[in-house]
Write a structure and sequence with these properties.
The structure holds 2 protein chains of 2 kinds. The mean pLDDT of chain A is 85. Chain A has 5 helices and 3 strands. By secondary structure, chain A is mostly helical. A 3-stranded antiparallel sheet of chain A has the order 1-3-2. The relative contact order of chain A is 0.16. Chain A has a single domain, classed as Orthogonal Bundle (Arc Repressor Mutant, subunit A), CATH 1.10.10. By secondary structure, chain B is of the alpha+beta class. In chain B, a hairpin with a 2-residue loop joins strand 8 and strand 9. Classes of the chains: A mainly alpha, B alpha+beta. Chains A and B meet through helix 2 and helix 3 of A and helix 2 and helix 3 of B.
Chain lengths: 124, 881
């Protein structure tokens, strides 16, 4: 099977995109990803264990993320905890998704679908 | 942090592989989430649990699908990688399952399926004998096979418990017809009562169908079948209102029956239905709608639809009450004493009618059941062979499987994958089997139609058939996949480097032993059926079947002496040595019987007052070459007032015992006026059936509407036949059929030939599969023991001893298989006993030949690998080891 191109994976499922964002600044373990997503969305998106690890399984297979061989956090003593990080391919896919979404937003602005006040808020 | 047991239980909804990979992290994460949620209050805790349960219900199934798809992709890649194995596997499954499906579909259609298209067939009952086809004229006692038109009318009008009753002609006729006065063509037609479509609950596809009104007035109408409408009229609606000339009737087409509707008889597909009231015009010659005491014309099948809540027993009682009440007034003062009591003892047997009538059911039942058992066994053998192939392949893949096991893959995971592989194989095989079965079904129906030219059945994927295919495919997948999967994963950790060796060989040998055991009954049955066919082909008819032509002519409406005039013309045709005619012809499928009174004979019971009969022309016996044992045969001079008859040996033995029959008298029914004087006794000859004893028969002369001329040419030149046909054409006589004796007899043995051929094919395939299986297992065994054998040879073992050693090790399994197979063969021969002719089911010759053939094949298959082992170069082999 040929390797997938970033575009072939778009649009990304919500959970996958959130996980990519959560892993953008540093490696994280599952619970940390869940907490980060919850914090960034002010609790609106709460990833459950099933949703999270099903997405992780798929992202590992697609090469969007990697599992770290060792824990980067010396204070972590629990062997069950595994850390994940973004791959280069994962970054490209995330960038492609961002591009897709901003193109969509521009189209919405051009047609006047997005209200002016909302537009100002975003540009501010 | 403790993880609640409930969450651990929920995790079991996920596939094992997923659980192994992520279960620990999920438990940890859930424990942390739960901890946080508890601090937020009971509502948040409850929400977390709801979320986890929802995941188990939605995400876990997706994960299962993912694993299955992964296994399937892997299985497909493996299939593509070994095209030889894949082709053999799919082909044998497609043939095995396809043959099973085709025969099951026929078996189900003929023996078990309800009438197609009919509304609620379970409410239908049949008041006559579902397997009877034909008619009877005379007096009867005991259970009734058919009813008369008068009896049907009485039941229809008076019997309670039925929401409707319908009658139909029990035999399907071929009628010569003209559409819109066009040229003559043939249709398959059936006379039915007006309520036929109403009682069966079937409406018209186009136009209208008959109603009960058609029973009360002459209604020159016809309804045609959907198939015939498509075939003959291209499905155009202009067919309505067209006229259809059948004999003296001119009928108008009023409607088309719905697709798939075949009426009340399974295995027959009429083109045209015509109201019973039209019988005198459609089937001229005899008024079958009215009976004159004491004779009844019984020719109708009668179906009824039960009213809600009425049981079969109640319907039987009510129908018999009406039926029997009608007997007394009909017979009036006919007969006395015991005989009268017997005549009045006639009764109906009301049976469930959902499966309709079917003369084919009785005819093909035993063959179809035996064939179904045969193909079932064949499929088992094919599965055993595939399992062997998979076992061998498992051995080839041992390194891969050992690696996966040592990398921590669970045994369940690997079994699941191996079973998925065999499921994928069998699924493709099953899909191909549907195509194979539709082709095979057509072939089988054509073969059955050779034996019964009215037999028609279309192949459709009936839900029961589909369920059968799915079950067989799934069972095959399990049979084929589970054992090898179990085998290749069952070894202990330390021996994983050597997976599929000893255990594999042991299972392989067991499978081969089973294959041999299953092949023997197929071979024995094939042998018995082949001998039956040979015996039937060479049966002694009592006259020569060489150089005999048969030609049936239509003399409806002709002068009584017309048949003799034509006979004279045929005899004068150059090249004709002898000729005569008869009403039944020879092996025409028809039979004629009459109740009789024999001078000086006291009837002993119910079945002792009837005999078979034939109306024959002058010099019938000398034309055929049947010796006259006593007296003389019927001659040209026996026309007019002197009524004479010739009887056969069986008749003489049964009714005259040691008395001299010549000069004695036989009367038809109890009518003393129609008395015939016996002038001769002829040697027994077979003219209606090949099997069974030759029935008592007497031969008289009378006027015939459709005589069959029996013509003996001086040479075997077919041109004689052509000139006779030419002569009949120029005499403006319509020919109904013409055939040589060989053509005439082919249908009689067609079913036996077909069954024997199929059994031989099954037997050969089984034998070939068993040989391949044995060869495969031994080759693999020899390859594995290369080292041991090389050491033996290096230590001085002679090649002969090595061959003998391998053969000796093999023969144990072969003999065990043959002993088991012998038992199965004896059981199987009981199953086909009813089909055998002049050969006992435990025929030692057939059994011995089959066993010998099997043994030889097994030895042959074992010898090749043994030979290869004995010619090993010990040094090279040991170096390789």
């Amino acid at each position: 099977m040929p390797d997938p191109t970033p575009d072939s994976l778009l649009p990304l499922p919500t959970a996958v995109f959130h996980i990519l964002i959560a892993l953008a600044d540093r490696e994280r373990h599952g619970y940390s990803i869940m907490q980060d997503v919850a914090a960034r969305t002010t609790g609106k998106v709460q990833l459950s264990a099933g949703t999270l690890y099903s997405a992780v399984r798929r992202m590992l297979e697609q090469g969007l993320i990697d599992e770290l061989a060792e824990s980067p956090d010396p204070s972590n003593t629990d062997e069950r905890r595994r850390y994940y990080r973004l791959t280069k391919f994962g970054k490209r896919v995330a960038a492609a998704e961002v591009e897709r979404l901003s193109a969509l937003l521009q189209q919405a602005r051009a047609t006047g679908l997005v209200p002016a006040v909302y537009e100002k808020k975003i540009t501010a | 942090m403790r993880v609640p047991a409930a969450f651990r239980a929920l995790l079991h909804c996920y596939p094992a592989a997923f659980r192994e990979e992520y279960g620990g992290q999920m438990r940890l994460m859930f424990a942390e989430q739960l901890d946080a949620a508890r601090r937020g209050g009971p509502l948040r805790t409850a929400a977390l649990w709801v979320g986890a349960t929802f995941d188990a219900l939605t995400i876990a199934p997706k994960e299962h699908c993912h694993v299955i798809l992964q296994d399937l992709r892997y299985a497909l890649r493996l299939m593509v990688a070994s095209p030889g194995f894949t082709t053999v596997a799919i082909l044998s499954l497609a043939l095995g399952i396809g043959a099973n499906t085709a025969i099951f579909s026929l078996w189900n259609g003929v023996l078990h399926a309800p009438l197609p298209v009919v509304y609620r067939p379970d409410e239908l009952v049949i008041l006559t004998d579902p397997s009877a086809s034909g008619s009877w004229t005379g007096m009867l006692d005991g259970p009734r096979s058919w009813l008369t038109y008068g009896e049907f009318e009485q039941l229809r009008d008076q019997a309670e418990g039925f929401s409707g009753l319908t009658a139909s002609q029990s035999s399907l006729n071929t009628w010569p017809v003209r559409f819109e006065g066009g040229s003559l063509e043939e249709v398959r037609g059936r006379l039915v009562s007006g309520g036929f479509f109403q009682v069966l609950g079937v409406g018209a596809w186009v136009g209208r169908v008959f109603t009960t009104a058609e029973d009360h007035a002459d209604s020159p109408y016809a309804v045609i079948s959907y198939n015939y409408w498509q075939r003959r009229f291209g499905g155009r609606s202009e067919v309505l209102g067209k006229t259809l000339g059948v004999n003296r009737a001119l009928l108008t087409v009023i409607g088309v029956a719905p697709p798939g509707f075949i009426g009340e008889t399974v295995g027959q597909q009429p083109d045209v239905w015509v109201p019973l009231r039209m019988q005198p015009a459609v089937l001229p010659g005899r008024d079958r709608l009215h009976d004159k005491p004491p004779e009844k014309q019984m020719w109708l099948q009668v179906f009824g639809r039960l009213k809600p809540g009425v049981t079969l027993a109640q319907a039987d009682a009510r129908a018999n009450a009406v039926f029997q009440a009608g007997l007394e007034p009909f017979y009036g003062g006919e007969a006395t004493g015991e005989r009268r009591r017997q005549i009045l003892d006639q009764r109906l047997i009301v049976r469930p009618g959902a499966q309709g009538a079917s003369p084919a059911r009785a005819e093909f039942s035993s063959s179809l059941t035996a064939l179904l058992a045969g193909v079932g066994v064949l499929l088992l053998i094919a599965c055993a062979n595939l399992a062997n192939l998979l076992l061998a392949r498992g051995a080839v893949r041992k390194a891969e499987i050992a690696l996966r096991l040592s990398l921590g893959a669970s045994r369940g995971r690997i079994i699941r994958q191996l079973v998925t592989e065999s499921l994928a194989l069998t699924a493709i095989g099953g899909a191909a089997a549907i195509w194979v079965s539709s082709v095979l079904h057509g072939v089988l129906v054509r073969m059955m139609a050779e034996a019964d030219d009215r037999f028609r059945m279309s192949f459709d994927i009936h839900p029961v058939v589909l369920a059968f295919v799915l079950t067989v495919t799934f069972a095959a997948a399990l049979l084929v996949g589970v054992l090898p999967a179990w085998q290749v994963t069952s070894l202990k950790q330390e021996s994983r480097g050597d997976i599929g060796s000893r255990g594999g060989i042991r299972s392989g040998r067991l499978l081969v032993c089973l294959q041999l055991a299953l092949s023997l009954p197929l071979l024995v049955s094939a042998g018995l059926l082949a001998r039956t066919f040979y015996n039937l082909e060479h049966a002694d008819l009592g006259y020569s079947s060489d150089r005999l032509f048969l030609m049936r002519l239509d003399l409806h409406g002709a002068r009584p002496e017309r048949a003799d005039e034509l006979l004279g013309q045929i005899r004068r045709t150059p090249g004709v040595r002898a000729a005569s005619y008869s009403s039944l012809g020879i092996f025409s499928g028809g039979e004629s019987e009459s109740s009789i009174t024999v001078e000086g004979y006291v009837a002993k019971g119910d079945n002792d007052r009837a005999s078979a009969l034939d109306n024959v022309g002058p010099r019938y016996f000398s034309t055929l070459g049947i010796p006259i044992l006593l007296g003389r045969e019927i001659l040209e001079s026996d026309r007019g007032t002197a009524k004479v008859c010739v009887i056969n040996e069986s008749f003489a033995k049964r009714f005259f015992d040691r008395r001299n029959p010549i000069g004695m008298h036989i009367s038809l029914g109890s009518d003393r006026d129609s008395s015939y004087e016996v002038v001769g006794v002829a040697k027994n000859a077979r003219t209606t059936a090949l099997r069974g004893d030759v029935a008592p028969r007497f031969f008289v002369r009378s006027t015939l509407n459709t005589p069959t001329f029996l013509i003996r040419p001086a040479t075997s030149n077919a041109s004689v036949m052509a000139s006779v046909r030419q002569a009949m054409q120029s005499a403006s006589v319509r020919e109904i059929s013409a055939a040589t004796m060989a053509e005439q007899m082919a249908p009689l043995t067609a079913q036996d030939r077909t069954t024997a051929q199929l059994a031989l094919v099954f037997g050969s395939v089984a034998l070939a599969l068993a040989a391949i299986g044995l060869y495969g297992v031994l080759s693999y065994g020899v390859a594995r023991r290369t080292g041991e054998i090389a050491v033996r040879i290096a230590l001085g073992a002679l090649p002969g001893r090595v061959v003998w050693m391998i053969l000796r090790e093999t023969m144990g399994g072969v003999l065990a298989g043959m002993v088991l197979g012998g038992g199965l063969a004896l059981a199987a021969s009981q199953l086909i006993q009813s089909r055998l002719y002049n050969v006992p089911p435990q025929d030692p010759l057939t059994l011995g030949l089959a066993a010998g053939l099997l043994l030889l094949t097994a030895l042959g298959a074992a010898y090749l690998p043994a030979r290869r082992a004995s010619s090993l170069d010990p040094m090279a082999a040991l170096r390789r080891e």
